[in-house]
Design a protein that fits this description.
Elements: E1 3-6, E2 16-20, E3 26-31, E4 50-52, E5 57-64, E6 70-77, E7 84-85, E8 91-95, H1 104-110, E9 112-117, E10 124-129, E11 136-143, E12 146-152, E13 164-169, E14 173-174, E15 179-189, H2 192-199, E16 206-210, E17 214-216, E18 221-227, E19 244-247, E20 250-251, E21 255-257, E22 260-265, E23 271-279, E24 282-291, H3 294-308, E25 324-326, E26 331-333, H4 348-360, H5 364-381, E27 382-383, E28 388-389, H6 404-419, H7 422-437, H8 450-459, H9 463-483, H10 496-513, H11 516-529, H12 550-554, H13 570-578, H14 586-589, H15 592-597, E29 613-614, E30 618-619, E31 622-623, E32 626-627, E33 630-631, H16 635-644, E34 647-648, E35 654-655
Parallel strand pairs: 1-5, 17-24
Antiparallel strand pairs: 2-3, 4-8, 5-6, 6-15, 7-14, 8-13, 9-10, 10-11, 11-15, 12-13, 16-18, 18-22, 19-20, 19-23, 21-22, 23-24, 25-26, 25-33, 27-28, 29-32, 30-31, 34-35
């Protein structure tokens, strides 16, 4: 970059309270009606900073518009004697939102969940205050095209800082003396529907909605592209031009009426399908994935686990364990030093998946593998008399981790459903007693099976145990309800998998007791939880919760950055599903299917899998846009889909998956 000039903002708007640094960059942006005084551009990077490797001159202009928005225009001018081309991430513009985790009281009022869509001409940012409310900040692209985004993080903050975002324009070719502009507008909005309405005010903008963005073989891709126009009247009132739609470069038919393009398309094979829509000289996109049918996908995955991820070494304490599998090296991997790579913890999900799958489709070899795994768990990870669950093999408890207890309990409950042996039900009960004995009521562990454990105990003549567990669950739920949005810090200070267990447990307690106090508390949690959910027209992000650290702790590449998808996002699907029957929660229930589907791109047709997809183009300069080579802990996502979207769920609903 030769030089950059920031011009003073022109015009006025009383809703925007702004501060600028000496260079003219935006350092504070508040809404004058916001009693909390939240700064929507707070962070370690400065909004509007430009990274430009080519030799271009940059000008930045701002103005308040008659629409009540703040427009920013970035002009890239070639003042050299030669053509200038940009590729990859050579050109980027920082947009800094306060998307970080600290004390919950701060997160609720001063931080936001930032949903970015770099979808060509129809790009946007939808920033939702973490605690909810009717003052939120949107960004809509009005000139130019965006290809993707990168992230710059403060790595000293580890999992708690999502970082600043670099928006990358599409590759440019600028001749000598010419310029290219990228422009967007910032606006305030009340909720998701208000956001949708406002972006559709812009001519040339396309808003894409689909029946599903992740589909199964045999399902039809169905989506609508709503064309924007002045004051939301639609393209039919502003332009007679008809769009052209391509699937992976090949033109596809569609209907076009009143500014809405409707597509029904059935690709002949599984895979990723990118639909690009050309309209009014602009190009926008949506991205779909078609997977094998769910039971076929589950069968392949279970066979892969049994054949390639199980240690079969009688001389090793790992004998029978399901371990990490490196899809690049084609080998198993274990490390005691790095807890997220060990023989216990989240990897229990592999055993849970097999136990669930075998209930529907018996298979002798898979059951032999599962039996060997359960023997491993009982020998290395469990003290049967007390119910204590250990962090790693040899009953190692260097780290006393409460998350581990419910996962082993779920394994035993699924084994009871599979085998019908009473021991498993008794062991599940002892594990949950141990969890609460060790302080579980003050911890928002993942997958505490409140409804299922009480129900199974009652159904099998263990009434006393059921009532004791229910009393413990009540104590736990009462504490969650009392704390409300004052979430206690866990391994990450605040995150989606703190809020989702809170929502799930309160829903389940409502169903167990019928008490409205749990329904009321559940609604409060669900309202916060849904703010994490993406709305972008891409299977990586649609109804996928924001998570941005898992690839570092569980992946071979050990890279931070937005993990779209990550399997714990499926917890939101469970919460939405469990909201069924709670008054005023119908809107959540209708979203459960997509929230559960959202994790399934982590599984591949040959049965292999990935623990995380690092979505940004780069993270602190490191390449992103990949599925991590390690199959590690992702199988909870496939288990969730089989349990909560296929067949019977824990409350006896029957649905076709």
């Amino acid at each position: 970059m030769r030089e950059i000039t920031y011009h003073k903002v022109t015009g006025e708007n009383s809703l925007f309270l702004t501060q600028w640094d000496e260079q003219g960059r935006l350092i504070s942006l508040q809404n004058s009606l916001d009693e909390e005084g939240m700064n929507w551009v707070k962070g370690e990077q400065t909004w509007g900073t430009v990274q430009c490797e080519p030799e271009l001159t940059v000008e930045v202009e701002r103005r308040f518009t008659e629409r009540g928005t703040l427009a920013e225009c970035y002009t890239f001018r070639n003042e050299t004697a030669f053509d200038v081309c940009t590729v990859g991430t050579q050109l980027g513009i920082y947009v800094q939102f306060p998307d970080f985790y600290t004390d919950a009281s701060v997160c609720m009022t001063q931080c936001c969940n930032t949903h970015l869509w770099c979808g060509g001409s129809s790009s946007y940012v939808c920033a939702l205050r973490m605690g909810g409310g009717r003052i939120n900040l949107g960004l809509v692209l009005t000139k130019g095209s965006l290809k993707g985004y990168s992230v710059q993080r403060n790595l000293a903050q580890e999992s708690n800082d999502r970082g600043a975002f670099l928006l990358h324009p599409e590759n440019l070719h600028i001749r000598p003396g010419e310029c290219v502009q990228v422009e967007w507008e910032l606006f305030w909005f009340e909720d998701r529907e208000d956001f949708r309405r406002k972006v559709l005010n812009y001519p040339g903008f396309l808003w894409i909605e689909a029946e599903h963005f992740l589909l199964f073989d045999g399902e039809t891709v169905r989506f609508r592209a709503y064309a924007g126009g002045k004051e939301g009247k639609g393209a039919a009132d502003t332009c007679r031009e008809c769009p052209v739609i391509y699937r992976n470069g090949k033109e596809v038919p569609f209907s076009w009426k009143n500014g809405v393009a409707e597509v029904e398309d059935r690709p002949e094979e599984c895979g990723e399908f990118r639909y690009e829509i050309e309209w009014m000289g602009k190009r926008s996109r949506a991205v779909f994935l078609i997977q094998p049918k769910i039971r076929e996908l589950a069968e392949r995955r279970c066979r892969f686990i049994a054949q390639k991820q199980q240690c079969m070494d009688e001389k090793s304490c790992l004998n029978g364990a399901y371990l990490i599998y490196d899809n690049e090296e084609n080998c198993q991997y274990y490390s005691h030093t790095f807890h997220d790579h060990n023989g216990g913890r989240e990897r229990v999900g592999m055993g849970v998946l097999l136990a669930k799958y075998l209930q529907e489709k018996p298979d002798e070899k898979l059951e032999e593998s599962l039996d060997a795994y359960v023997r491993f768990v009982r020998r290395e990870l469990l003290q049967e008399e007390t119910g204590e669950v250990f962090n790693d093999v040899q009953r190692n408890q260097e780290w006393k981790r409460l998350y581990n207890y419910p996962w082993v309990c779920v394994l035993f409950l699924e084994m009871f459903r599979l085998k019908g042996e009473r021991w498993y039900l008794q062991a599940a009960y002892r594990v949950m007693e141990a969890y609460y004995r060790d302080g579980g009521s003050r911890f928002y562990a993942i997958c505490v099976p409140m409804y299922e454990s009480v129900t199974l105990l009652r159904e099998n003549g263990m009434e006393e145990e059921a009532e004791r567990l229910l009393a413990l669950y009540r104590k736990h739920g009462d504490r969650i309800a009392e704390l409300g949005k004052n979430y206690p810090a866990h391994e990450v200070k605040y995150e989606q998998s703190i809020v989702s267990p809170a929502a799930i447990y309160l829903c389940e307690l409502f169903h167990l007791t019928g008490e409205e106090k749990y329904g009321r508390a559940a609604r409060e949690q669900l309202a916060v939880l849904e703010l994490f959910q993406g709305l972008q027209p891409d299977y990586h992000m649609y109804e996928v919760a924001i998570r941005h650290w898992d690839g570092y702790w569980f992946g071979k590449r050990a890279c931070y950055g937005d993990a779209f998808p990550h399997y714990w996002s499926g917890l939101t699907g469970i919460a939405f599903r469990e909201a069924e029957g709670i008054p005023n929660c119908e809107a959540y229930v209708s979203r459960a299917e997509d929230a559960l589907r959202g994790t399934l791109s982590m599984f591949f047709a040959d049965g292999s899998a990935s623990c995380a997809c690092v979505y940004p183009m780069t993270v602190n300069g490191r390449p992103g846009g990949y599925y991590d080579p390690w199959a590690n802990d992702q199988d909870w996502g496939l288990y969730f889909y089989l349990k909560y979207a296929c067949g019977e769920t824990v409350r006896g609903r029957s649905d076709e998956g």
